[in-house]
Every structure is written in C-alpha cells, then in structure tokens.
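chain below, 717 aa
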Amino acid sequence: MATIDETFDSNVAYLTINNPPVNALATAIRAGLVAAIRKAAENPAVKAIVIIGADKTFVAGADIRELGKPLQRPFFPDVLAAIEALTKPVIAALHGNALGGGLELALACHYRVALASVKVGLPEVTLGLLPGAGGTQRLPRLVGPAKALDMILSGKPVDGRAALLLGIVDELAEGTTGADLLQGAQTFAHKMLAERRRATLVSARQDKVSAVDPALFEDIRSKNAAKWRGQLAQESIVACVEAACTLPFAEGMAFERERFFALKDSSQCKAMRHVFFAEREASKVPGLPADVKARSVRSVAIIGAGTMGGGIAMAFANAGIPVTQIELGAEALANGRAIIENNYATSVARGSMSRDKAAKALTLIKGGTNYADIADCDLVVEAVFESMDIKKAIFRKLDAVMKPGAILATNTSTLDIDEIAAATKRPEAVIGTHFFSPANVMKLQENVRGAHSSAETIASVMSLAKKIGKIPVLSGNCEGFIGNRMLYNYVRECDFLLEEGATPWQVDNALKAFGFPMGVYLMRDLAGLDVSWRVRKGREATRDMSERYSPIADRICELGRFGQKTGAGYYRYDGRTASPDPKIEALIESVSRDQGRTRKPVSDEDIVMRALCALVNEGAKILEEGIASRAGDIDVIYVNGYGFPRYRGGPMFFAEHEGLATIHAHIQRLYLEQGQLWKPAPLLARLAKSGEGWSAGAASPGSPGRNTGVHQAIVKQ
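prediction:
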C-alpha cells in the first residue's frame, strides 16, 4: 500500500515516500504528503522537514497509469504549493531517481541534498508531454533557460555531481546508500537550523530568468524545426520556458498547466504512453513456465567480423561481457577489428562514450579463426551472409564444438529458424537473435523462437537482451518474422505506386511528412541495393509468377546503380547529398509503359495510407497466427527498428486510432482495385465488424498458425 511514513528526530520530521517499486506520485502519495505536511506544520516541536524516498530511490515520476484517467485531488501543483507555503524549511533528500514529478517535488522544496549517484531530470517529452507541475517554471530559475531547455527537450537526466554544479542540489551527501543519504540530510537539516538559514523558494528567484535575450528561443526553434516537424510537445516546452522568463511565476504556472492538459489529451501523448507500456510488456513471454530461469551468460562468441558482427560484439562488450569473434582468416579479423576501433573512436569524438569506457570495451573483444577457441562460451551468435547453406554449415560446426548448455543463436533477418536448428542435434538450444544495424546503437532485438526452442533458451535471450540495453520482442518463426515480413508488403506497395504515377522522391517526402526519419528509397540507397537484388535473384525460381511484381529495383541494379556507395541508385549523389534523377523517372515511366499502365497523379495522402494499410493488414495476419503475442509487440518493433514515429504509436496503434472499420474499408477498396495481394486479413475483418480492438484478437497458446508448435512446446516445458 502506498504510504507516507512519518518519523521524528529531535526537531526534524522525516516524511518517507513508500510506494514500491519506484515511489510514483500516485493519488494516495499526494494525499499522504498533504496530510503529513499539514501535521508537521501544526506541530510546534518540528522546526524542519526532510522528504525522502523509501528503499533505493526518491521518486521516479508520476504514476503514468493515472494519465489516461481523470485526475484526482489533491492535484500535484496543489501539493507543491502546500510545501512552498510552509515557513518551516523543507529539504528533499535525493537518491536513485528524481525524475519528472520527482524532480518537480524536489524543486518545490527549499533545499536539496543528494547522493552523487542520483539521476535528476524531466523526461516528460518522451511521453509527448511537458512537466506539468512547475518544472518548466522552476528549473530555469535555478539553471537558466538554456540549460533548462537542454534538459527538458532531451529528457536526459544528470547525475548528482552535475546537478550540484548546475545549482539544482545544494549539497552532496557522502556515501552510496539510502542510510548514508538519510544521515547526510539529517546533518544538513541540523546545520541549517543552527545557522538560522531562511527557507528560500525557487519560484521567487529571478536572477537567471530576467533580461534573457528572446533570440535564444527563436534560435532553438529554427535549429530544430525539421527534427520537430509534426510533434507537439517540443514547441510547447520552448513556449513554457520562454514564459518563465517573461511572466510572473503564477502566470507562468497557469500557462504551463494549460499547455500540459492540451498535450495530455492529445493523440501523440496517448500514442507515446502506448509505446511506453508496450515496451515493458514486450519482454514478458506468454506461456513460459513461472519457474523457468534464464541462464547466466558470462562469455559470448560471434561468428563473423563484418559490420553486423562487429556491432553485435560491441553491444556485448559495452555491457561488460567478454566476446570472441571468429573469422575465416587473419585479414578478415583485422578488417573487422579496424571497424570496431573506428566506431569507438567516433563515439568518443562525439562525446557519447568516455575514452576509458571505450578502451575497456575494446579489451573485452578478441578474435580467432578456430571454432575450438569458443567451445566454452555460454552463447554464440552467428552473424554471416544471409545464406541458408552457409548458416547450416556453421551450425553443424557449432553443434560439434560448443559445450552442453550453450545457446546457439542466429542473427538471420528472414530465414527459417527450424531449418537452421535441424542442422544440429540440439534444436532446443537454437534461437534467432535478430539485431538491427548498427547493432551497437539500435535498441531493438527481435528474438525468434523455433518449434523446439526451449523455455530456458527463450528466457535466457530475452533476459540477456535487457542486460545489454536492448528492447527485446519475441517473434514466432516465419519468413521475415514480424518486422521484415511486414516491411516486404510496405515496400511492395511503394514500388507499385511508382508504376502507377508517383516518383521515389514524392513517396519519400510523403512518408517523411508523416514522421518517418527517412523514406523507402533513400533508405534503400543507404543500405545498398545490391544485397536485396542478390536475394531476389536467388528467389526468382520459386516466385509465384501469377502475383504482380515490380521490376523497377532490378532494372536500377542492372545499370550498376547500387545506391549511395556507387553515387547513384534511386537518387544521384554528391557525397551523401541526394538529388532526384530524371533518368530514374524515365526508367519508371518505361516500366509503366511496358506494363500497359496509364500513369496518374497520386496524392501524398494516398501514398501514406496505402503504405500504412499494407503494414496493418500483414500485422493483423501475424497477430492472428500467433507470430506476435500482442499488437503492442508489433508496434515496439516498428517504432524501435523501422523508424515508425513514436508519436504515432506504431502501425497497429495507428490503425486503432483511425478506427479498424475505417482501415478495413480502405483495404477492402484496395482489394477490389488491386486484387488478391490486398485480401483483408480475417482478424481485421472480424474486429472491424465487432468494433473490438486488437486485444480481442491476439492468438492464445495452441491457436492455429505456424507458431502452434512453438506455443505447445513452451507450455509442455
């Protein structure tokens, strides 16, 4: 039960916020604080008050579950006003996390004492919000508007030492534990009383917000206009901090509150809250036995030292896990090592990693050419060329040398996990771990279970992904899994739109205006067109010739245009700068003529809707088959792996927001116009008719589809 625990020491009252696990500012906590503050105020023996968090943290923020509901009294700003109204000094004692509402609570106190390890910040922007209880008004008064904007717009916290230098905290307590903090706060309180210090209000300070040059705010707006396009929270944050510099505190608070409620009720905030919860839910695997335990992974091997293998090696080394890379020869190993060293040098130069951390990580990565060198590793990740024959040969070798209990993982992005596992005598230890490039940067890890992957193997890779800082999502086994299976349909329809009248730059610009960081064709050029061309040629013999197929990409490759690396692809390039190319427009028009198609103008709205409907229709099939456990898992994959704008919530959330009946009607029209490729997913048709959401259609263990065996295997174990 959420409580405020009250204790007394001489003339100091200690109010401990106790709402595990993160001491969120739920209604009960807010009410408890008001009551405890009133009680302390009325007690003549109490001369000062310390507010501290129970266990290992102060307050990690508001209770996000309450954001989607009508707010309950007491409102948080009223709690903070009650603290500021006290004539007795209030000291916030900070450890663990003091984030969002936690920092706003601390800023309303008269003084702040912290451990050096504390993290303080205002991350509301990551939920499409701004601080709604004075964060945009009080923080600039302590650190100035420029630094306040940097903290609030990035959402990134600072540690205790940085907070002390900035003036956010008044003193650092010695030690590392909650008990050390309590002792430090107690000492500070008694020293403050002995020195007869007056209680000072952050809200009354003016020196950092007076005479601020208005150009500061216009400069920030202009520099970020492209990056913030389509998003609501960032402009409101700038406006609120600007108000802190131009309006009296009470008026600035009213302005902030008005902007907060506008954002709270926006579709963007709802979308970002959905992603927040979906990311946390994605790591939970339905059907896993409650008593299954993840294996400890203390050492890892990577087969392949190319770009992907190197990135995966860095991901493990950055988390402190020793890595051995295996390659065919010394030259390949040396080339791979050079790539890794260059990547670390770039990270250090950019300031995203300290020199010491980079050096330590490099010492954890070694190379070899003999599989026997990795026999004792707990996990091996194969990261070689996307060829089934090559991968099966590697897994036969791994099966022969790896110790019992080792996990054998493949980084394949499309290939059949069960066929790979069949090359071994231990299919229960085989699983897919699909990293996204660059693997040392991208957060998503799409883990793929085979029909025989054991519960222990699944639990182990899901747990390990979190340990190395990834967001894990579990997929069933099918061609392309979740992400690439849906991407195929998305890209296919963009190609068909080219044949029907669009241009690559129109498609890219329309998708970018929706919120994608990059359109389909710039993305393809950046990745390199030759790799996917090689895959298409390999599948030509088995392709269904009755289905519509666009030859545009093949014809571009036949001209030797492989994208940015050759200076020409869908676009032509001057270095990395892309320009529309009339030659490509002429090539596309010739394809349209060959197919007997009359090109017509295509609206940007039609481009976006068609591309997104292709994602949604395939996503509905994936959900019904049990390849994905939840619609939210699909959204997590697309937001974190494919650039779907977070503030749109992912394709499945987008569909629910638009209305599944509306999306179904659009897909039905395309089905009548375009044919069998657009046949509406049965699940989508059912839910559109019933008016229910995706949660009513998620497959349960043992439901039809290729994933049935996987579910049953987990349940049996």
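The two ends are 35 Å apart (CA to CA). Residues 392 and 419 are 8 Å apart (CA to CA).
thats it, cya
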